[in-house]
Amino acid sequence: MNRIRTKTAAIVLLLAGTTLVHAQGAGIEWDTLNNEVEELYRQGKYDRAVVVAQKALEVAKQNVGPDHPDVALSLNNLALLYVEQGDYAKAEPLYKRSLAIKEKSLGPDHPAVAGSLNNLALLYATQGDYAKAEPLYNRSLAIREKALGPDHPDVAGSLNNLATLYDTQGDYAKAEPLYKRSLAIREKALGPDHPDVAQSLNNLAELYCTQGDYAKAEPLYNRSLAIWEKALGPDHPDVAQSLNNLALLYYTQGDYAKAEPLFKRALAIVEKALGPDHPDVANSLNNLAALYKTQGKYDEAEPLYKRSLAIWEKAMGPDHPDVATSLENMAGLYRDTKRDKEALELVKRADRIRAIKR
Questions:
Q1: pTM, entire model
Q2: How far apart are CA 324 and CA 327, in angstroms?
Q3: Buried b / exposed e along 102-113 (16+ C-beta atoms within 10 A)
Q4: How many C-beta atoms surround the C-beta of residue 114 within 10 A?
Q5: Where are the domains of the chain?
Q6: What is the architecture of the domain spanning 1-148?
C-alpha cells in the first residue's frame, strides 16, 4: 500500500472524562495517571504511555479490586495502546477482560458494554478478521439503539464503524446507507458544523473515492475540511487529516499541482501540533514521498521515505505493519532507480514483519 488515506472509525477511548461513575472509584492518583496516559497518547508517545497505563491499572486493582468498572477502563486503555503499537496479541485478552467486567458489573445492555464491544470489533477489523468483528459491531449498535434511542450520536458512531467494516470489504451497497444514516443523525443531533459531521462526510467521501466517483467525493471532502477548520482551527491535526485525504483525491486523478501544496500543509500542521516524531508525521512524509516518486522526483522522495521509516520504527517498534508498508514503499523507489539488490532486502524484511503479525 503506497498511500495512506485516513478513514476514521469511532474508537472508544475511555480516559479521564469517562462517563463511568467513580465517586467511590480508583482515586486521585488513578485519575492523574489517566490524564498522563491521554496526553502521551495524543503525542504519539506510545511506549511511555504503556508504562503509565500499566501503573494506572495496578492502582485501580489495589484501590477497588479486580472486578470494578474502573479496572475495566484501565484495561481498555492499555489494550488501545497495544493496538496502536500493532501488538494485537497483547490487546485482545485485555479488551475481552474489560468487556467481561463491564457485563458483570453493569449488565449486558449497558452503553459501556457497547463501547467495549466496539473496540474489540475494531481490533478484529484491523487484523482483517471481519467475521469476528461484524457480530460485535451489530451487538454494540443494538445496545446503543435500545439504551439511547435510534437518533443518539453514539448510535451514529456504531453505524459509522459498521459501514467502515463493509466499506473495507468492498461491500459498498451495505456501507453507503449506513454512512448516510450516521451523517443524518449527527447533523440533526449535533448540528451541521460539528467535527463528528466532518468525520461522516470524510468517510462517505472515501467510499465514493474508492469507487472512482471523484465528482461526488470532492465536495464532501471540501465540506469536511471547512468544518474542521472552523470548529478546531486551521492548525489542528484533524485538519491535516482532511487535507491529506483531499490531496490523495487529486493525486489519484493525476492532478499533482493541486495535491502537493495540500500534502505539504498537512505535514507542516502535524509537525507543529504533534512534534517531529509522531506517527502522523510519518504518514504525511510517506504520502508526499509517494507523490514525488510518481513524478520521478526520486531525490526528493527518498529522504522523505527514510524519515518516515525512522519515525515508525521509533514510535511503533521494528515489527509494526506500518514499518512493513514503509519498507515496501522504499523498495518500490529502489526498483525504479535500478537498485534491485537493496529493494530485495527491504522486501524480505517487510515479509518477515508480515509473517510475524499473521
A1: 0.84
A2: 5
A3: bbebbeeebbbb
A4: 28
A5: 1-148, 233-358
A6: Alpha Horseshoe (1.25)
